[in-house]
Amino acid sequence: KQEVTQIPAALSVPEGENLVLNCSFTDSAIYNLQWFRQDPGKGLTSLLLIQSSQREQTSGRLNASLDKSSGRSTLYIAASQPGDSATYLCAAPGGTSYGKLTFGQGTILTVHP
Amino acid sequence: EAGVTQSPTHLIKTRGQQATLRCSPISGHTSVYWYQQALGLGLQFLLWYDEGEERNRGNFPPRFSGRQFPNYSSELNVNALELEDSALYLCASSLWLAGGLPPEQFFGPGTRLTVL
Predict the structure, then answer these.
(1) Residue B47 forms beta bridges with which residues?
(2) B105: which chain A residues are within 8 Å (Cβ-Cβ)?
(3) How close A38 gets to chain B, by Cα (Å)?
(4) Among A100, B50, B71, B103, which residue has the fewest nearby CB atoms (within 10 Å)?
(5) Taking CA atoms, what residue in A is nearest to B4?
(6) For chain A, which residues lie within 8 Å of any Cβ of chain B, measuring from their own Cβ?
(7) pLDDT of A11-63, one tens digit each?
């Protein structure tokens, strides 16, 4: 059974800082890992998908890494902006039920001007 | 290209009633997934439909059911509503390619269900 954990639960930073969000998973035989952004009361926006064969994936100021052996993924946000304020979620397909995504509890990010 | 759409945006029901939520996937996607996001419980997987068939089901009672239509849109039905069913219900879609690796899931804006 796949379990996903995210730390920290909340993070508050000044504008312009580089920051790292962490995601841990228990089943290292994952096929891929997805990072999402969720604004309050809204749906999820897919940010990055990292396949198990990749180590990194980049999109603009976002860079995600995946280390299957240690069961960890990190999301790096460069030069943070107030518009980055949101909840960030990571999710992985779960074991043999790989149509299902198992989500972490999320990191609430606040970037203040 | 239009994303995943869901209707209604908000739904208010009373305990014991039935609720029907609808989802239209991205054009060309054949899989639809339903998730529940209740306050304090995180995102929980409900159901997965692909090509009209139920492929997987989360740990929810039978009063949560659904179906997928020939045009790949989907309906989630919740019978005998309980107060704890109040949540944001999210639908996602994807397209499984040859090789069978889990594809990226794209989410809709959600339906906020409130049970009074």
Answers:
(1) B34, B57
(2) 34, 46, 101
(3) 10
(4) B71
(5) A43
(6) 31-32, 34, 36, 41-46, 49, 51, 89, 91, 93-94, 97-106
(7) 999 999 999 999 999 988 888 999 999 999 899 999 999 988 888 999 999 99
